[in-house]
Every structure is written in structure tokens, then in C-alpha cells.
Input
Amino acid sequence: MKLNQLFFLSPLFLTSLFAAEPVATVTNTPGLVAFWDFAKREPDGAKRFTAHVPAGATTDYPLDAANYIKDYWGAGREATYADFPLLGRGPFGNAIRIFKETDADFRPFFFVPRSRLHDTPLDIKGAGKSVTVVVWAIRESGNHALAGIWHEGTDLKEKTTMSIAKVERGQRQYALFAGLNKQGSACGHVSENGASSFLNKYALHKCNSFEQSPEVPADSPAEVLDKSWQCFAMTFDHEKDELTGWLNGVSGDRWLDNPKNDKLISSAYNAYMQGHYAKLPGKQDGEDEAFPKDQYYNPPEGEPLSVKVLRESADERVELHEHRFTKIEVTLRGGKEVSRNLVALRLNPWWYPQDLYSPKDAQSGGPFTIGRVIHSSRGVGFTGWIGGVAVFDRALSAEELDKLAEIRSAP
Output
């Protein structure tokens, strides 16, 4: 097609034309399971958004709209496609808006029901499975869910659950969040049991990219929005046992100092110390012999990457040992370790040695959701624009994620 011919084409056609190459970049990336660009729709009927899927796939995962407050609390109104304004532009030619809802009984999201995804390629779970989730978004506010299979459960004892009509246990597998404890970062979240970690009420296996996305008003002028797209991604590599967050193709190192004093990660600190105590003969001060062994958290610690002497006296020396996932303060007397303390824990990448939760049947598994997840606190969560969601059944490389991150300008 000649350039002078483009002048006579409609804006919508031009948008679709220029978006074709970015779509191909995603669909040609090996391991793709599903990719929603919010332009592809069912040809007939409700014309729901559908995913680009590999040749021969038995479903293209059409998205339904729902208000989970109505479904679980019996309050509020039904959600429809009309509750998700369309931008008409974006990395792939269109985008959906997730509003900062003011009605406490209205939390709409898009979803694929469990009955339509169970045991399909999107249902990534079990032994030896890896996963990558990529979301192109403009974050207006919030730090919660972008996309994934992450039904947090409605069984937590909170004020918001006092009036709940439908109580369900957590059904978490994998999901990408807009930061959580590090707002605006790319936060990957995985679970081995669908429920909680380290005796905390929440699931705590999560990572945080070093970089953090800015807040951009969703009603900004088109020229501002076009320059504000961020590429959030998470990878879980089962061969490396690493969960990593990536923002715009960059992971970055992130550590949490003094995890013992962190509101949530203190549970991981305790899981580390309990696992350490269990290896020592006899009962140790602070040891909880009832702590479940499958909840110990002890990343590999072979030869330290570095050793720094913190202080030393005639009969005692205290060293800081840095390992891939931990920093340990070790006290030695006569050259023998007499105590240790976890003083820093690596948040990116996060060590995760388990498999992804594998629900026994469709009734015990969660849906795939976009924009929000089902959870007890009923918070507003992420708000802004989402221009694309892609899921792969392997851990993409840094080079592949960098290539996907280049798709950030609206045509």
C-alpha cells in the first residue's frame, strides 16, 4: 500500500493496520497461551473480547464481565461491558479502563470462568511448570492485581466478610500485580497451596521489580497517555526456582533489610529461622516445634558470595554472609558458628522452590481475571488503562521481555 493511499483510510482501519506488527511480535513469541489485545472479538453474538491463541487451540477464552461483590456478597448491580470505557488507541490499538469506583458494592472485572479454563493451556499448574504474564498498562493509582488466576478467597475473618453470602477458600495459582508492598513495581505472585504462606493469613511468595511505574491520570490528553504505557511482567522459572518481576524489560535487584521488622515478610523471616533451628540438635531458643515443615523458607546457602567482618573481639567475630537470596549475620566463637540471624531477604528475584497450586477439580480452582481479583477486603485496587494481557507457559528470557517492552507507544 502506497503512503498517499493511507490518507483516504479511516482512523479505525489505520489503527488496526499499525497495530498488526506489535500483535505479531507477541503471537510469534514461543510459548504463548493466550493474548488479549482488546481489539479481537467474537464475530457473532455478544462479541466479547477474545484472545489470540496458538493454531489448533480449542478455545480463545472469551471474557465475561462481572461484579464480584454481587456474586459473593449479594450486593450491588451486575457489571457489563459498558462499565469498561475503551480508549480506541494503545500499544495494540485499543485499551480498557479500570475505574476508581466510589460505590463500595461495585468492583467490576473481566474474567474467564473456571469451567471454561480448567485443564486448558491457560491453567498453568503442577510439577515442572513455568509461567510468564505480561500486561501493558497505564497506572493511574493502586497496587493490586492486573491479571492472573488469583482468587484470594472470601474466607478471611475481616469486617467486610461479616455480611458475605458466599464463602470460598483461596484458589491462587499465579498473577501479576501493580506492586503490592512496593507500589508501582511489577509484582509476581505465586502459590503452592492456593491459600496462605508461613502461617500468615496471606500468600507471601511474591517478587518486586526494582523500578516502579509512575501514576498518570487516566483522563490525561492523548499525547500524554501515548507516552505513558508501561510493560509489567512476571516470570516464574521452575528450573531456577526463581520468581522475578520486570518493568519495561528490566528486573533489577531488590532486597528487604530487616525482614524481622516487616509487617508481612516477618512471617518469611520466622519461616527461615524455624527451618534453621530444625537443623540443629536439641530445641533452640525461639524454636516452634509445631511449625509445619512444608512452610520452612530456607533458600540455598552454599559458599557465600561475599563475607564482611562486622565486628571482632578476642573471643568472638560477627560476619555478614551474602548469598543469592539471603544476607546472614553469623556469630563465630573459636571459628565455629554459634548463632545466625537473617538480616536481609531478596525480593527480586524471589526464591520459590514449590510447584504452582494444582486444583483437584474445577470447583476448587479460580477464574482467570483481568483488572481485579476476588478478595475479602473489597478494595478498589489498580485503576488506569490496560492495553494488552499475554500469558506464556514458560519463563521468557530478558531479551524476549525487552522486545515485548518495546511495544509501548500507541499507534
Observations:
- The chain has two domains: 10-251+350-358+366-405, 265-348.
- Residues 265-348 form one domain.
- Residues 5-9 have pLDDT under 50 and may be disordered.
